[in-house]
Amino acid sequence: MEPIQDHLKEHLDVVFVGFNPSIKSSETGHHFANPNNRFWKILYEAGITPRKYLPEEDFTLLELGYGLTNIVARPTKSADEITKEEYKQGKEILKQKFQKLNPLIVCFVGKGVYQEYSGKRNISWGVQDTSIVSGTIDFVAPSSSGLVRMNINDIIDIYKELPKLIATLKVNNK
């Protein structure tokens, strides 16, 4: 199984960070490609994208100011297969990416992703009190996996905070 390409560039509004690519993502070469994953639906219904994108269009999010990456590059069937060493390496690689690319917000797609990245255990949804990389805002949203038992409308409501946060930050940075 091959890792999939990050879609990143400098000064993005939001970089979405997943655990790692699924088998389906590895096979297709696109982020959030598993048909049971609701990422693309959530982005659209939360007002983050103007329409529901397909996984094959993942690279076009860059045009909207959004990027995609993972804490671990190795594809697996489930996140349970990721080793502590892979998380440790992934955390350092992410920090370097964010220091270099300076995104406005880093949105962790799942509390578990942020727990591995930050080392923190008690995490609330949304903006975190402190960020790991200075100059970026850490934002934690629910996983988009179909395995998550949280109500989809509640998940979407949390993601709806991102466009509001972007607008506020851009007004304050003028």
From TrEMBL:
The UniProt record lists the keyword Isomerase: no
Keyword terms, alphabetized: DNA damage, DNA repair, Hydrolase
Superkingdom, natural source: Bacteria
InterPro entries: MUG/TDG (IPR015637), Uracil-DNA_glycosylase-like (IPR005122), Uracil-DNA_glycosylase-like_sf (IPR036895)
Domain Uracil-DNA glycosylase-like span(s) in chain numbering: 7-151
GO biological process, alphabetically ordered: base-excision repair, AP site formation
4Fe-4S among keywords: no
GO molecular function: pyrimidine-specific mismatch base pair DNA N-glycosylase activity; uracil DNA N-glycosylase activity
Pfam families for the chain: UDG
Gene3D superfamilies referenced in this protein's UniProt entry, alphabetically: Uracil-DNA glycosylase-like domain
PANTHER family assigned: G/T AND G/U MISMATCH-SPECIFIC DNA GLYCOSYLASE, G_T MISMATCH-SPECIFIC THYMINE DNA GLYCOSYLASE
Protein name per its UniProtKB record: Mismatch-specific DNA-glycosylase
Gene source species: Heyndrickxia camelliae
Organism lineage: Bacteria, Bacillati, Bacillota, Bacilli, Bacillales
